[in-house]
Amino acid sequence: MQSVIDEALIIGLMDYRESDRIVTFFTREHGRLSGVARGARRSVKRFGGGLELFCRLNLSFTPGDGLVRINDVEPVTIYPGIRTSLEGIAHAGYACELVAAMSPERMASQRLFRLLVAYLERLDSAAASRGERHFFEMNLLNILGYRPPLESCCSCGAPLGDEGGSWRRGLDGGLFCSGCSANGRRLGGETLAAMLGSLRTGRFGHVVYTQGVLAEAGEYLEEFISANLQRPLKSLGFLRLSP
Question: Does the model's pTM come out above 0.90?
């Protein structure tokens, strides 16, 4: 079968047998796919040192029904700025793990590819922040069809606006206005504005999450995302300790 070349980001790595690695990529044209890198653990020269988590590269592979065969990789950037801080590494690792967990296998999404590239470029040039992590989460959910229902009350349909709403664990992420439920955790109007504003611009740094907004949005998004995953994300443990 003829080999294929595509732009890719490494979103997962796993040792396999004595000398191989299974590498998970998110590619521009082919979506998420995994392949075997033969001899990658035995010799760094085999793939030019390009098999690092969240490395951007040009990938040559031979398609198959299961794992693809990785023929060659040409690193474009390892995002060196990210690797200078534990916070940067943690946020980049979380983004990659989230894409790996939520994106359907082999379903191409150039929008998601561009979003992940943009976030890694931002982390490469600026300090990691919780607000920009939530910006990434909101846009990823929107692209993949998991957009949280934030505009109106899930019971009566009234717009929430500046008043905000409340939500409860175990539900589908819907919010209630004060007339339908006085219980639950709050998402205030400022928090809703920041979260919805994240979907109206494609540029990091244009939406400000204040300290109070960070607390409300963080709790809601973590619950909403975990409800749509089959297993917990390992990278969340360190992020909970980050500023």
Answer: yes
